[in-house]
C-alpha cells in the first residue's frame, strides 16, 4: 500500500488538477506523511517489543527448564527418600518376623530331620510347650488308669465279701462307699484337668498351624526372585511377600505415583512350558484383567494396573487389603458368631449382586474363603477373577457351557460342575452354591460336604455328586432363617436353585426389611 502511495505521489503532478484541488491534495499528502512516520515509529517499537518478548520468552523457557529439572530432581529425591524409608521399615519387619518364628519354634516346634529306619525325611518336631502338654496329658492318663485299677480291685473285694469268699480282706460297706466316692471324685477332677489341657492343646494346634504357614511364607520370600526390594514399572516399590498361590506370588508394595499401598501379584509362567501353553496362560490372565479392571464396587477388590515384567512374568496391581483373608480367619477361629457370619455373607452377596446387575453379567466361579479379603476396617471384598466367566447375552436362564472343567476348589463347587457325562451349563447359581458352603462353614466350623476329604478323594468318591441334602449339627444353635438360606443356596438341582438376583431377596440378607 505504501509503495502504491509513493508511486502515486511521484506521478500526481502530471495529473491535470485545479489550484484548490492541488492545495487540498498536498495537505492530504503531508497528513499521510505524518501518518507514515507514526506508523514507522510504531512498527519499530513493536519490533523492539517483539524482540524483547522473544528474549523474555527464551529467558522464561530457560528458567522453566531449570525449574522442571529441579522438580524432577526433587521428585527423584522424594521417591528415593520414600522408597529408602519403606525398605528400611520392611527390612525391620522381615527381621522381626524371623525372630518371632525362632522364638515360637522353641515353644511350638520346628521342621526337622526325621529318621525312619534308613529313610531320612523332613518332618515336624514338637516344641517344649507341646511336649510338656503331651507329657501332662500322658501322666493324667496314667493316673486315671491307676485309679480305675484300684477301683476295680475295691469292687472285687466288696463283691468277694458279698459272696463270703474272703472275709479277712473284706471292708465295711461304709468304707467301701467312702473309698469309691474318693476314686470317683478323683476321676472327675482328672477329667476336668484333662479337658483344660485338651483345650490348651487345641489352641496350640491353631498356633502351630499359623507358625507353619508363616514359616512357609518366609521360606517362599527367601526363595523369591523379587525379594530384593525392586521398583517395578518405575512406580511400584515391592516390600514384603504376603503369600504364594498356585501360580503367583503376592507382594505388599507402595505405589510411588499415587502414594498408596497396593498388592502386586506376580504371575510367573513356567520356563519349561511350551510357547502354546504360555500364550494360553497369558490370554487367560489378560481376560482376568479385562474383566476385573471394569469392576468398581466396595465389595470387590479393585484392579489398578497390569504390566509385563519379562517374557515369562507379568504383574497385576490390586487394591491392598491389610486384613486377613477369610480362610486365615477361619483357620484361627473355625466357627464365627452368627452375627459376624451374617454380615460377611451379606457383603459377599452385595458383590455378587453387582456382578449380576452389570450389562455383562459375571460368574466368579472360584468363590471360597481364600478369595474373600478384608481391608483395614474389616470390609469384606471378593477377589481373584482368574476363573470367572462372562455370561454372553444370548445365553438363556440355564446358563452357559462350562468349558474349563476341573478348575476351582471342590468343597465349594456345586454338583453340576462334577457331571462328567455332559458339559455342564453353569450360571450365577454356581456362586450361590459356593456362598451357601461359605456361610455353613462360618457358622458350623466345617464344610457341609467332604470336610475331612482331600480334593482328590472328593473327586474319586463323587462326594459332591452325592451331596443331595444338607445336614445341620445340633450345636452351635443357629437361627432358622440362616439355615433356610443355606438350604436354598445348597439346592441340589440346578434348575430349582435360585440365582443370585433371586436369592438376593432373601430376608436374611437384608437389614432394613425386618
Ligand atoms: P490361588 O492360587 O487359588 O488364588 P491363593 O488365593 O492362596 O491361591 P493368591 O491369590 O496368589 O493365592 O494370594 C496369595 C496370598 O496373598 C494370600 O494369602 C492372599 O491373602 C494374599 N493376597 C492376595 N491378594 C491380596 C490383596 N489384594 N491384598 C492383600 N493380600 C492379598
Ligand atoms: Mg487367591
Automatic annotation (TrEMBL):
It holds the Pfam family Pkinase. Residues 151-171 are annotated as: Disordered. One of its GO terms (biological process) is intracellular signal transduction. Gene3D superfamilies: Transferase(Phosphotransferase) domain 1 (1.10.510.10). Residues 22-73, 187-221 form a coiled coil. GO terms for molecular function: ATP binding; protein serine/threonine kinase activity. InterPro entries: Kinase-like_dom_sf, Prot_kinase_dom, Protein_kinase_ATP_BS, Ser/Thr_kinase_AS. Residues 236-509 form the Protein kinase domain. It comes from the Eukaryota. ATP binds at residue 265. Keywords: ATP-binding, Coiled coil, Kinase, Nucleotide-binding, Serine/threonine-protein kinase, Transferase. GO terms for cellular component: nucleus. This is Serine threonine-protein kinase. It comes from Musa troglodytarum. The lineage of its organism: Eukaryota, Viridiplantae, Streptophyta, Embryophyta, Tracheophyta.
Amino acid at each position: 500500500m505504501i509503495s502504491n502511495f509513493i508511486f502515486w505521489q511521484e506521478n500526481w503532478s502530471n495529473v491535470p488538477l485545479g489550484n484548490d484541488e492541488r492545495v487540498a491534495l498536498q495537505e492530504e499528502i503531508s497528513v499521510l506523511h505524518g501518518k507514515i512516520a507514526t506508523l514507522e515509529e510504531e512498527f519499530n517499537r513493536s519490533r523492539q517489543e517483539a524482540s524483547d518478548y522473544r528474549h523474555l520468552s527464551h529467558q522464561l523457557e530457560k528458567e522453566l527448564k531449570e525449574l522442571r529439572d529441579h522438580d524432577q530432581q526433587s521428585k527423584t529425591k522424594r521417591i528415593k527418600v520414600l522408597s529408602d524409608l519403606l525398605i528400611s521399615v520392611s527390612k525391620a519387619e522381615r527381621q522381626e518376623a524371623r525372630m518371632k518364628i525362632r522364638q515360637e519354634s522353641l515353644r511350638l516346634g520346628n521342621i526337622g530331620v526325621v529318621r525312619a529306619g534308613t529313610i531320612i525325611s523332613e518332618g515336624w518336631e514338637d516344641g517344649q510347650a507341646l511336649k510338656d502338654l503331651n507329657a501332662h496329658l500322658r501322666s493324667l492318663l496314667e493316673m486315671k488308669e491307676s485309679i480305675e485299677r484300684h477301683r476295680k480291685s475295691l469292687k472285687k473285694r466288696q463283691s468277694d465279701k458279698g459272696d463270703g469268699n474272703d472275709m479277712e480282706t473284706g471292708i465295711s460297706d461304709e468304707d467301701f462307699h467312702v473309698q469309691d466316692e474318693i476314686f470317683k471324685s478323683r476321676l472327675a477332677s482328672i477329667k476336668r484337668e484333662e479337658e483344660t489341657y485338651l483345650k490348651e492343646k487345641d489352641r496350640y494346634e491353631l498356633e502351630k498351624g499359623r507358625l507353619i504357614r508363616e514359616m512357609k511364607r518366609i521360606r517362599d520370600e527367601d526363595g523369591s526372585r523379587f525379594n530384593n526390594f525392586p521398583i517395578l514399572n518405575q512406580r511400584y516399590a515391592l516390600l514384603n511377600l504376603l503369600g504364594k498361590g498356585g501360580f503367583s506370588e503376592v507382594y505388599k508394595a507402595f505405589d510411588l505415583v499415587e502414594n498408596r499401598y497396593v498388592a502386586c501379584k506376580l504371575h510367573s509362567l513356567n520356563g519349561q512350558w511350551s510357547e502354546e501353553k504360555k500364550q494360553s496362560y497369558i490370554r487367560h490372565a489378560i481376560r482376568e484383567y479385562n474383566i476385573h479392571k471394569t469392576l468398581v464396587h466396595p465389595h470387590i477388590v479393585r484392579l489398578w494396573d497390569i504390566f509385563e515384567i519379562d517374557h515369562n512374568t507379568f504383574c497385576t496391581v490390586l487394591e491392598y487389603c491389610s486384613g486377613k483373608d477369610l480362610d486365615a480367619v477361619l483357620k484361627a477361629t473355625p466357627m464365627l458368631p452368627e452375627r459376624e457370619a451374617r454380615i460377611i455373607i451379606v457383603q459377599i452377596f452385595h458383590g455378587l449382586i453387582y456382578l449380576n446387575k452389570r450389562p455383562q453379567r459375571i460368574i466368579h466361579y472360584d468363590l471360597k474363603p481364600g478369595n474373600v479379603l478384608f481391608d483395614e476396617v474389616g470390609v469384606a471384598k471378593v477377589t481373584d477373577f482368574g476363573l470367572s466367566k462372562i455370561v454372553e447375552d444370548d445365553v438363556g436362564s440355564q446358563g452357559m457351557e462350562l468349558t474349563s472343567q476341573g478348575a476351582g476348589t471342590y468343597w465349594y463347587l456345586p454338583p453340576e460342575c462334577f457331571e462328567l457325562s455332559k458339559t455342564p451349563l453353569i450360571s450365577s447359581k454356581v456362586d450361590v452354591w459356593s456362598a451357601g458352603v461359605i456361610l455353613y462353614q462360618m457358622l458350623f466350623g466345617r464344610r457341609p460336604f467332604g470336610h475331612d476329604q482331600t480334593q482328590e478323594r472328593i473327586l474319586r468318591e463323587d462326594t459332591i455328586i452325592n451331596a443331595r441334602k444338607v445336614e445341620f449339627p445340633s450345636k452351635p444353635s443357629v437361627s432358622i432363617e440362616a439355615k433356610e438360606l443355606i438350604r436354598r443356596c445348597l439346592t441340589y438341582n440346578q434348575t430349582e436353585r435360585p440365582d443370585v438376583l433371586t436369592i438376593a431377596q432373601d430376608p436374611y440378607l437384608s437389614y432394613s426389611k425386618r
